[in-house]
Design goal:
Layout (H helix, E strand, L loop, with lengths): L2 E2 H17 L1 H11 L4 H13 L2 H4 L4 H15 L4 H15 L5 E2 L1 H19 L9 H16 L4 H17 L24 H17 L3
Antiparallel strand pairs: 1-2
Helix pairs in contact: 1-3, 1-10, 2-3, 2-10, 3-5, 5-6, 6-7, 7-8, 8-9, 8-10, 9-10
């Protein structure tokens, strides 16, 4: 069982849809502790990605992911552009030339993506950022690899780990980004970056469940 190029494309398309659907939700979350533009920025970025789909739909997974990354870098405002751009660029580097990915390939790509985000944003687990959703997702995938869990189940468990990481940001005091300016007042609010990161991984699980 593997994740085909077409399934990878489907993930990107459905990510654009889910971020559009959750645009106002993400705006509300970001309004509480940030600039209030996260939902609009992510929606705009993936609208731009969608405009390039016809040009890359026959390419390999790495090229598709790199195109997504470069597009987000140039269209998503604030810190989101470099962070989400890096996320997809790293996936692209690890999947260069691939027309399909195994679970091991995806785990390697996702880990590289998260490492890239950590290096770019200088955030660690517990800083109340997207890293708090992404890191548990990688840990879960690695555990699934060790236990020979079927790919669909592994992806579900990874998304569930991301969801828990997202929820766990609520009591945290932000140490990075705009939210950190609020200090103790940032506690009690769910981090918007962790939320969009969870949504992206949940869509992957939903899309690739039968891979």
């Amino acid at each position: 069982m593997s994740i085909s190029r077409d399934k990878f494309l489907e993930w990107i398309n459905k990510t654009a849809e889910i971020l559009k659907e959750n645009r106002e939700y993400l705006i509300d979350l970001d309004s509480a502790i940030g600039d209030g533009d996260h939902g609009a920025n992510m929606d705009r970025g993936f609208r731009a990605v969608m405009s390039k789909m016809n040009d890359i739909e026959d390419k390999d997974i790495g090229t598709i992911a790199k195109t997504v990354g470069m597009t987000l870098l140039s269209t998503v405002g604030g810190a989101g552009g470099p962070l989400y751009g890096t996320f997809y660029l790293q996936i692209g580097m690890k999947s260069a030339g691939m027309m399909e990915m195994s679970l091991a390939d995806w785990a390697t790509a996702l880990e590289a993506a998260v490492d890239g985000v950590v290096m770019r944003g200088k955030a660690q687990l517990g800083d109340k950022t997207m890293v708090d959703a992404l890191t548990p997702a990688v840990v879960s995938l690695k555990e699934s690899m060790n236990g020979s869990v079927p790919i669909g189940d592994a992806l579900k468990e990874s998304a569930n780990a991301a969801k828990q990481g997202m929820v766990d940001t609520i009591p945290l005091v932000a140490k990075k980004g705009r939210a950190s300016y609020l200090g103790e007042r940032s506690a009690g609010h769910q981090d918007p970056g962790a939320t969009s990161s969870y949504l992206i991984l949940q869509v992957a699980a939903d899309t690739w469940v039968d891979s």
